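Exercise: predict the fold of this chain.
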Amino acid sequence: MESQIIRPGHLTAHQTARQLGISLDGVRQLVRRGRLTRSGGTPRQPWYAVPDVAALVAERQTRKVA
């Protein structure tokens, strides 16, 4: 279940997964590998900073083009 109250400039894990086109487990793997950092929320409902997610989205799009 997604959090109803979230600080501006942050995304929930579900929103992050949708933006990246991956599963929630994929988001967890990015965190585990150090590619994405939690920036708030709780351990069970983490938030991720929009600029961090946007950078990963741009990187993925660049990789698809190349």
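Check your answer against the key: The chain has a mean pLDDT of 91.
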